[in-house]
Amino acid sequence: MKFRVDRDVFADAVAWAARSLPVRPSTPVLSGLLIEASDEGLVLSTFDYETSARATLSAEVSDEGKALVSGRLLADIVRSLPAKPVELTLDGARASLTCGSARFSLQTMPVEDYPTLPEMPTAAGTVKSDVFAHAVSQAVTAAGRDDMLPVLTGVRLEIDGSTISLLATDRFRLSIRELEWNPSTPDETLAALVPAKVLADTAKSLTNGSEVTIALSTGGAGEGIIGFEGAAAGGVRRTTTRLLDGEFPKVRSLFPNEHLTKALVEKAALVESVKRVSLVAERNTAVQLKFSDGVLTLDAGSGEEAQASESIEADIQGEELTTGFNPQFLLDGLTAIDQPTVELAFTQASKPVVLSGSAADADPGFRYLLMPRRLLS
Fold first, then answer.
1. Where is the domain boundary, 242, 277, 312?
2. pTM of the model
């Protein structure tokens, strides 16, 4: 195997493929990055039996072949290379990499021991890459991080015709984001539970092209697989991952149909106020929010400990109330909202608040439901 490739294109593709390598691989070959050179260019692949990554890119290939080398080591090397073309040659059990006057010799691993990557499922449709990446970043805000509850570490992706819904919850909060897309089959209804971290990393990494293709298989051959494909510099990138098993809780009904109190608040002012007041909040204690007479008053701290209080303007409709929330969870929801004005909607003080952006002529798209915390007396 021998090829010559642009340094920047190669470094970017290697880094992208290597990003999903396991930290503690079950077998040494799973730490490898598979390089395949042919007349069509290069294919760089990684796979840990759960998530696969495959990047294709253009290259001048002199001799076809395959090599399996340490993915993280190769990524570190090519990232540090000078801005000159990269040449890689396979010589027996070693791969020689040359860039300008820099030369590296890498030990290879047996290609025949490397697992076969899963096939890409059938394409379900396409979505604008930047819109999808932003929607995913909003949805994963509420995803769980407790591996003891694996179902809650996923994002439920629901496809209903031309609409995609992304839902996530860790039991204390819930997010939902809806967006439009172009389905391959109109009126098709599908659902999948995708690992939140993989979904977030993948969506963020596929924004070079204008669109992302989503491919989904929830039955038959390739059961429980979702794939994402997008254009990149010099080629195409493709990721697949296994879907999570288990039943995602039916959370849509948690959003109430009616609210007795609504408050419109400037987002930036509320975010800064929560940050300041929460400085004195003890671990696992709430920041109190009191809605009354066009003013939102935030309080934290109690007794002989440090205390803080701050008031900001608010357009309050309905009954006055006092409640409290985990300050970090509240900030997470607020910062995920795009609009400059946020709406906080309540049924009563002891029930969850629904946060959304306030826009007179647009659907806020993202909603965030947060459970209240018990206030210290």
1. 242
2. 0.91
User: Residues 156, 164: contact at Cβ < 8 Å?
Assistant: no
- In one-letter notation, the amino acid at residue 210 is S
Token pair 């598979």: residue: 34
For residue 228, what is the domain's CATH number? 3.10.150.10
Last residue of a domain, one of 113, 139, 158: 113
Q: Does one domain contain both 67 and 131?
A: no
Cβ-contact 94, 106 below 8 angstroms: yes
pLDDT, tens digit, 9 for 90 and up, residues 148-207: 999 999 999 999 999 999 999 999 999 999 999 999 999 889 999 999 999 999 999 999
Tokens of 306: 């440090």
CA distance 224 to 202: 17
Q: What is the pLDDT of residues 288-304, one digit of tens each?
A: 999 999 999 999 987 77
Sequence-distant (6+) residues with CB within 8 A of 367 are: 175, 176, 177, 255, 354, 355, 356
For residues 230 and 320, membership in a common domain is answered with no
- The residue range of the domain holding 128 is 123-242
